[in-house]
Amino acid sequence: MDSGKRKSLQTMHPDLRPSPAQRLKALVEGANALMSALETVRALNLGAWCIGAGAVRSLVWDSLHGTDYRLADGDVDVVYFDADSRPEQDAAFEARLRSLMPALRWEVTNQAHVHLWSAKLLGQAIAPFACLEDGIATWPEFATCVGVYLDADDSIGIIAPHGLDDLFNLRVRHNPVIASLATYRARVKSKRFAERWPRLSISDI
After folding, report:
1. Within a domain: residue 122?
2. Alpha-carbon radius of gyration of the chain
3. To which H or E segment does residue 26 belong?
4. Is 78 helix (H, G, I), strand (E, B) or coil?
5. Domain encompassing residue 182
6. 163: helix, coil or strand?
7. How many distinct structural domains can be found in the chain?
């Protein structure tokens, strides 16, 4: 966004400014690779689904920092909810997506099964999620708990159980529902948040 447009948004009457949801939808619509990814995932007929986490977070933070957004620079996290799906179905969906868009690093997770692998792989017992939004609400940072999807009429839907304020206000805060503080701190460091987006306000508590 050029400085003239940014200034006009800042001085616009509050009632006329686009909402965070409107801003996010506009950013998604302008990101051709992400739109193509959404169209590709929609074709799988997953039911309740979205692309979330880093793909959405980076889109917003890159825009707010005036840097180019490249979907292929990170994992594309696809989450869906299907209590009747077999655990091995995630890998089959990933393989299908890789065949359709091989330039992207796809990761597919059925949120209906998270409690199973959490207990088995992490030794952490959590209650089964009741819906897709329940799963997204547990991701390690509040700003990351956001997903977008494409409806049949090509309209963009948003799932943001904690809202969009942290995402658009460049705030990074620990979501303690599942992730430990140590896990949160390790993620902030490994994902180079402060280096990639220096305007972020990162909380260490």
Report:
1. yes
2. 17
3. helix 20-29
4. strand
5. 19-202
6. coil
7. 1
Residue 131 lies in a domain: yes
Q: Are 182 and 153 within 8 A, CB to CB?
A: no
State the CATH number of the domain containing residue 175.
3.30.460.10
Tens digits of pLDDT across the chain (205 residues) = 555 555 555 555 666 789 999 999 999 999 999 999 999 999 999 999 999 999 999 999 999 999 999 998 889 999 999 999 888 899 999 999 999 999 999 999 999 988 776 655 556 667 889 999 999 999 999 999 999 999 999 999 999 999 999 999 999 999 999 899 999 999 999 999 999 999 999 998 7
DSSP string for 102-135: TTSEEEEEEGGGHHHHIIIII----PPPSSHHHH
- Closest of 50, 14, 55 to residue 33, by C-alpha: 55
**Three-state secondary-structure class, residue 189:** helix
Report helix, strand or coil for 39.
Answer: helix
What's at 203, amino acid-wise?
A: S
H helices present in 43-180, as ranges: 54-65, 89-100, 114-117, 132-136, 165-168
Q: Taking Cα atoms as reference points, which of 92, 134, 95 lies closest to residue 115?
A: 134
Torsion of CA 107, 82, 113, 145, to 10 degrees: 60
